[in-house]
Design goal:
alpha/beta, Aspartate Aminotransferase, domain 1, Aspartate Aminotransferase, domain 2, 2 domains, four-stranded antiparallel sheet, 41% helix, globular, binds pyridoxal-5'-phosphate
């Protein structure tokens, strides 16, 4: 069909589908690993799914036939749910979701269900917020590296722009006032009006929680510039190690002139491992934003039977509490398995305490310290080593050689095989493993260019 018959939006190429992040998924689909039917296939390590605690939900479902059978006290509620179409959502579900959100943030914040807007996942929540807060051509500042899906979710249909806040490995990719100011100046130079900052906490792809200092820096910045702050907290329940997660709603407590400009995004895709159910939410203290987003949510509602089922699940206090604790324990176990396995291979990761992935430093494996070098290594990983991992460039990282590696969407055996494949690859590159007794890489075996980086940049001292 001729392109002129389509809208500009439908014909344009700004969806981001051609990013190596999504291309990796396509390559995996062509040759997916299966221990029995395709043992040499590609292992999917580019998908931040949580498959570690399905059994806990399944056993709850087995023992609660009313919830799965759409019954209340044994009586079918099919007709009620079949007709329900109020875009405010089921009150009992919003209450259960607000309680769940409070519980995964060590009860430091109480969430009011009236300030919640239900959306079809965090994808829809983020886009809806941008529709509420920005005109086409206005900009949001995003700390790098950031989740590749944001290029699609925040920009494609809204026409808004993203200006990166450049963070670097020299301070573990922490957000600083200087970096925020620089991004703001850059936006002004590009004649873009800045409407806010959007960050992920815990970070995707870093797997780190934000410090109180970073949160205060961000809050001071948005107040000084008179703009908004969106905190995407979809990984809040994955915080498996200290320091503890601090929600933006906790960070603003006791501060003036802030609450109306701070908005939180949440979903059940990561903490509960249910991206297929499409359950997300916006939480905001700004009544106008809540009202506008609720009207917009007509375009991406959560189905009534999903709300019914999950309100029963999440209202079960005992289930909620034990799930959160056990899920965190399992994520930590898996994280440690990957980090220790990579260490044995001579590969280090950024220290992390949350998320379903590690931010892995493979700079010493690049043939050149360039993004071409990173792409070459990524292709080798996908086609020769058989691992789909996400290159840092797809997350807009400024430094070539970092990769996001997911660990919670497969069995422990598959993860061990993936580590073995990496180990074999490293040995084939160097002829031997490049590690010293303490587990770190030996400088004498590194490519020359990496030795010229400042040592803090190399992040070897851990
Ligand atoms: C930071 C972040 N926000 C939003 C999303 C989208 O989540 P959902 O499946 O709830 O739309 C993801 C998914 O990976 C994510 O990592």
């Amino acid at each position: 069909m001729p392109q002129q018959l389509l809208s500009r939006k439908a014909a344009c190429n700004t969806h981001g589908q051609d990013s190596s992040y999504f291309l990796g998924w396509q390559e995996y689909e062509k040759n997916p690993y299966d221990p029995k039917t395709n043992p040499t296939g590609i292992i999917q390590m580019g998908l931040a799914e949580n498959q570690l605690s399905f059994d806990l939900i399944e056993s709850w479902l087995e023992s609660h036939p009313d919830a799965t059978g759409l019954r209340r006290d044994g009586v079918l509620v099919f007709r009620e749910l079949g007709l329900f179409q109020d875009y405010h959502g089921l009150p009992e579900f919003k209450k259960a979701l607000a309680d769940f959100m409070g519980e995964s943030r060590p009860n430091t914040v109480k969430f009011d269900p009236h300030k919640l807007v239900l959306t079809a996942g965090a994808t829809s929540a983020n886009e809806t917020l941008i529709f509420c807060l920005a005109e086409p051509g206005e900009a949001f500042l995003l700390p790098t590296p950031y989740y590749p899906g944001f290029d699609r979710d925040l920009k494609w249909r809204t026409g808004a722009e993203i200006v990166p806040v450049r963070c670097s490995s020299s301070n573990g990719f922490r957000i600083t006032k200087a970096a925020l100011e620089k991004a703001h100046r850059r936006a002004r130079k590009l004649h873009l009006r800045v409407k806010g900052v959007l960050m992920t906490n815990p970070s995707n792809p870093l797997g780190t929680t934000m410090t109180r200092v970073e949160l205060d820096t961000l809050i001071d910045f948005v107040v000084a510039k008179d703009i908004h702050l969106i905190s995407d907290e979809v990984y809040s329940g994955t915080n498996f190690d200290s320091p503890g997660f601090i929600s933006v709603m906790e960070a603003i407590q006791g501060r003036k002139n802030v609450a109306h400009r701070v908005h939180l995004v949440y979903s059940l895709s990561k903490d509960l491992g249910l991206p297929g159910f499409r359950v997300g939410a916006i939480y905001s203290n700004n009544e106008t934003v809540v009202a506008a987003a609720t009207k917009m949510s007509s375009f991406g509602l959560v189905s009534s039977q999903t709300q019914y089922l999950l309100s029963a699940l999440l209202s079960d206090k005992e289930f909620r509490r034990s799930y959160i604790v056990e899920n965190r324990r399992r994520i930590k176990e898996r994280h440690d398995l990957l980090v220790r396995g990579l260490e044995r291979t001579g590969i280090s990761c950024l220290n992390s305490n949350a998320g379903l992935f590690c931010w892995v430093d493979m700079r010493h494996l690049l043939k050149s310290n360039t993004f071409d070098g990173e792409m070459e290594l990524w292709k080798t990983m996908v086609y020769q080593v058989g691992l789909n991992i996400s290159p840092g460039s797809s997350c807009h990282c400024d430094e070539p050689g970092w990769f996001r590696v997911c660990f919670a969407n497969m069995s422990a055996e598959t993860l061990e095989l993936a580590i073995q494949r990496l180990d074999d690859f490293v040995v084939s590159c160097h002829g031997h493993k490049v590690i010293c007794n303490s587990g770190c890489r030996m400088q004498s075996c590194m490519p020359k260019w990496i030795l010229t980086l400042p040592s803090s940049d190399r992040m070897l001292e851990r």
